[in-house]
Amino acid sequence: MKKDFINSPFHTIPTGNEDLSEVNVIIEIPKGSMIKYEYEKDYGVIKVDRYLYQYTPFFYDYGLIPQTWMSGDDDPLDAIVLTNVSSFPGILIAVRPIGVVCIDDSGERDDKVISVPVKDPRWSSVKSYKDVPAHMLEELKFFLEHYSALQPNKVIKVKSFKDVPEAIALIKEGIDTYKKKFK
Q1: CB 28 within 8 A of CB 50
Q2: pLDDT in tens, 99-123
Q3: Predicted structure pTM score
Q4: Would you list the domain boundaries of the chain?
């Protein structure tokens, strides 16, 4: 079967505005989910990747930034969306990048952009990951290092957090890799 990229939102939704101070995220996993959904880029649908191996629900929305690709994990660039309420798989949300969480996923680079919803006034004063309460960052680190602990051969280590310039650079890297792979 020939894959048709034309109708896939991953390939048609723009990454974000020109300076990348706002980017689009297609939500894969809503806050509170115990199911790891993944966006099927070739067909434009959300699919179940797996059920989590332990009771550790996502405490943020999680998705991908369209028209980006990362060579480390050979997948779109991931985005964590800090939010007070959950959304649902497949929606598009405009976010403001506030940092990066640098991750080693079983020996593979798997950095993720940390972001907040542009249109949620509760997050309007958050411009950097440093504006996020320290305990919430500790929760994020703990969650990422433990949510797949019972999954065989899976070891995730959070190496560091980085600020907005590094998030923008990571998104640009993802855009460049996407262009080389798909254009």
Answers
A1: no
A2: 999 999 888 899 999 999 999 999 9
A3: 0.93
A4: 5-182
Residue from 90, 140, 80 nearest 112 by CA? 80
Does the domain made of 5-182 have the CATH classification 3.90.80.10? yes
SS3 180: helix
- Cα–Cα distance for residue pair 22/54, rounded to 1 Å: 34
How far apart are alpha carbons 135 and 147 in whole angstroms? 17
Q: Amino acid identity of 102?
A: C
Site of tokens 């949620």? 120
**Rounded Cα–Cα distance for residues 120 and 105 (Å):** 31
Widest distance between CA atoms in the chain: 49
28 φ/ψ angles, rounded to the nearest 5 degrees = -100, -45
Closest to 55 (Cα-Cα) out of 35, 72, 37, 71? 35
What is the residue whose two structure tokens read 């798989």? Answer: 89
